[in-house]
Design goal:
Order of helices and strands: EEEEEEEEEEE
Structural class: mainly beta
Distance between the termini: 40 Å
Strand content: over 45%
Shape: globular
Helix content: under 10%
Largest sheet: 7 strands, mixed
Oligomer: single chain
């Protein structure tokens, strides 16, 4: 069993930066792809970014490419989502997810991930 806890959300202004963190418990972190998804009010949850258990490759949604980066620290069982040049349309609840896989390429679909955090709110004001 893997438990995930997100932190770092908050209220920021258009153009600001924010770093989300996700700390996991359990012994399987190093074998898991780690992903970030988000859900805005009235919308479906969507993929944001993912990082392989092999540290590379990473995947990003087109809407965040060039603005967000993802990294992981296996010694601390933690994955980070660094968000820059934030826009009001980035406002959402951000979820961390973990999924074990033998593939090196991290998935971009919700079905690729077995474990989910409770989410952290990110609000970007204009």
């Amino acid at each position: 069993q893997v438990q995930l806890v997100e932190s770092g959300g908050g209220l920021v202004q258009d153009g600001d930066s924010l770093r989300l963190s996700c700390t996991t418990s359990g012994r399987t972190f190093s074998r898991c792809h780690m992903g970030w998804f988000r859900q805005a009010p009235g919308k479906k949850r969507e993929f944001v970014a993912a990082i392989s258990w092999a540290f590379s490759p990473t995947n990003f949604a087109d809407s965040v490419k060039g603005r967000f980066t993802i990294s992981r620290d296996n010694a601390k069982n933690t994955v980070h989502l660094q968000m820059s040049s934030l826009k009001p349309e980035d406002t959402a609840v951000y979820y961390c997810a973990a999924g074990e896989s033998l593939r090196v390429e991290p998935g971009i679909n919700e079905d690729d991930y077995m474990y989910w955090g409770q989410g952290t709110q990110v609000t970007v004001s204009s």
